[in-house]
UniProtKB/TrEMBL annotation:
Range of residues in the leader sequence: none
Name listed for the protein in its UniProt record: Acetoin utilization protein AcuC
GO molecular function: histone deacetylase activity
Pathway: Ketone degradation; acetoin degradation
Gene3D superfamilies noted in UniProt: Histone deacetylase domain
Keywords: Acetoin catabolism
Pfam families (UniProt xref): Hist_deacetyl (PF00850)
Classification via InterPro entries: AcuC (IPR003085), HDACs (IPR000286), His_deacetylse_dom (IPR023801), His_deacetylse_dom_sf (IPR037138), Ureohydrolase_dom_sf (IPR023696)
SUPFAM superfamilies (UniProt xref): Arginase/deacetylase (SSF52768)
Length: 384
């Protein structure tokens, strides 16, 4: 019997590393996989090795000159003069040895996930190293060198002529993917993120709806700072359900950044672990309702690597592998014993937070009311 869900993973993913002080830390992959294993949620036959994306595949999205610049930055100890013009070697996206190879492997992992799903070997495939949604055609941005989400969508368009629904739930707007397909009516991008008034990249406004033939195929929901679970999920469920059913995709690609949690150090939202149970649940249901289950899931942002990312991505895997949690299980003591000494913070005892630890929300009725207005506005020109 074939697994319903595969997990694309390699130890080599950890070579995508900027420096020890950078907030993008791939140790979160180790922490997540170990938590999944301690819960006994993953079997040996569900692991799949990634492959490297070819230059031709990268060029589906990225400019050849940019790819050459990435290669040069990763080959030399001295940063080439051209680096800054490509967004490379900045504080945001520093250069590092082998950056072309490391990022090509992550892109190839998401392509491998797409191949598994589109060939019918499984319904869903997960590549948690992916989700590099800020990468542009000719520029690195927001910790992202190559954009695996954009490349895999272009690949699905080219090789399968598929209509692709892209769902982005990172706290930062999925700008790189949106602009790559802004005039394409065969790709519907739906991004739920914190408003860009106070957060990178500053885009993702409600009136960014697409252009030309693609008008109406870009949907943005910019949540107010301090938005909590109930308001976040109310908007998510109404907007995504109606947009997805109107679009009728052939396949769904999800970006599962988990930096909307109140403990995340880079953002200003106030959600708890509950949204990370509900986000994949709706995407999963829509995939089976609309496109025979075809769903490719990637990771994304998430900068509390000890208390948030392992739990959020374990919930993603549990849902897609039909092992979703209905209760609030304790975090396995073996996992806590292994990692507590390394962690600068106390590791959580349970999968979900008790209500008394959730933050107080200032202006909650005002925030909820403002977010609710986005439902109608976001869907105004959406596919029907």
């Amino acid at each position: 019997m074939r697994p319903a869900c595969y997990f694309v993973h390699s130890e080599a993913y950890k070579q995508y590393k900027f420096n020890d002080e950078h907030p993008f830390n791939q140790k979160r992959l180790d922490l997540t996989l170990d938590l999944m294993q301690k819960y006994e949620l993953i079997k040996p036959n569900q692991f799949v090795e990634p492959r490297y994306a070819t230059t031709e595949e990268l060029e589906l999205i990225h400019d050849p000159n940019y790819i050459e610049a990435v290669k040069k930055c990763g080959e030399s100890e001295k940063l080439p003069i051209i680096a800054a013009s490509y967004g490379l070697g900045t504080e945001d996206t520093p250069a590092f040895p082998g950056m072309h190879e490391a990022t090509s492997l992550i892109v190839g992992g998401t392509l491998r996930a797409a191949e598994l799903v589109m060939s019918g070997e499984c319904d869903h495939a997960v590549n948690l190293a992916g989700g590099l949604h800020h990468g542009f055609r000719g520029r690195a941005s927001g910790f992202c060198v190559y954009n695996d989400c954009s490349v895999v969508i272009a690949y699905l368009r080219k090789h399968y002529d598929a209509k692709v629904l892209y769902i982005d739930t990172d706290a930062h707007h999925g700008d790189g993917v949106q602009w790559a397909f802004y005039d394409d009516p065969h790709v519907l991008t739906v991004s739920f993120h914190e408003t860009g008034k106070y957060l990178f990249p500053g885009t993702g406004k409600i009136f960014e709806r697409g252009d030309g033939q693609g008008f109406g195929y870009s949907i943005n929901v910019p949540f107010e700072p301090f938005t909590e679970d109930e308001s976040w999920l109310d908007v998510y469920e109404q907007v995504l359900s109606e947009a997805a059913r109107g679009f009728k995709p052939d396949v769904i690609v999800t970006q599962n950044g988990c930096d909307s949690h109140f403990l995340d150090p880079l953002t200003h939202l106030s959600c708890s672990m509950e949204i990370y149970r509900q986000i994949p649940k709706l995407a999963h249901r829509l995939a089976h309702e609309l496109c025979d289950g075809r769903l490719i899931a990637t990771g994304g942002g998430g900068y509390d690597i000890w208390r948030v990312v392992p739990r959020a991505w374990t919930l993603l895997w549990a849902e897609l592998s039909d092992q979703g949690f209905s209760d609030n299980p304790a975090i396995p003591s073996e996992w806590i014993d292994r990692w507590q000494a390394d962690s600068p913070v106390q590791l959580p005892p349970f999968m979900f937070e008790a209500e008394d630890v959730l933050p107080d929300i200032p202006r909650r009725p005002e925030i909820t009311s403002k977010n609710k207005l986005y439902i109608e506005k976001a869907l105004l020109h959406a596919p029907k």
